[in-house]
Amino acid sequence: QVQLVESGGGLVQVGGSLRLSCATSVSIASIDAMGWHRQAPGKQRQLLATMSRFSVTNYADSVKGRFTISRDNAKNTVYLQMNSLQPNDTGVYYCSGYTGALWNYWGQGTQVTVSS
Predict the structure, then answer these.
(1) What angle do CA 47, 60, 57 make, to 5 degrees?
(2) φ and ψ at residue 103, rounded to 5 degrees
(3) Whose CA is closest to 33, among 51, 60, 15?
(4) Distance (Å, rounded) from C-alpha 47 to C-alpha 18?
């Protein structure tokens, strides 16, 4: 069973930065892709950023240029660097693992609140 554990959320002011971490219980090189999602209050979960096992990245338009996904294979950890945070970036952020054409693995989520 793959386990994902997020950390790094918190309260930040507009324009600030946070770095989220996602530690996995297996080698992330064995997972087809890793992703970060956000669920804002009253909204559906949104895919923000992905990184394939070949390090190809993709971003939602809403975070392109502000957020960066990266990973450390030695630590089996995926990161999401978030800069220039805005109030509409507030939400619960989830790390996920993609295998077999599905986002099969999920962390418990970490809260990010951007205050104005």
Answers:
(1) 90
(2) -85, 90
(3) 51
(4) 18
**Tokens 């989520």 appear where?**
109
Structure letter (DSSP) for residue 84: S
User: What is the per-residue pLDDT across 37-96, written as a single tens digit (0 to 9) for each?
Assistant: 999 999 999 999 999 999 999 999 999 999 999 999 999 999 999 999 999 999 999 999
Residue 17 three-state SS: coil
Q: How far apart are CA 100 and CA 32, in angstroms?
A: 8
pLDDT above 90 for 15: yes
In this structure, are residues 44 and 64 in contact, taking their beta carbons and an 8 Å threshold? Answer: no
Phi, psi at 65, each rounded to 5°:
90, -15
The edge-to-edge listing of strands for the beta sheet with 77-82 is 4-7, 18-24, 77-82, 67-72
Residue 105, beta-bridge partner list: 97
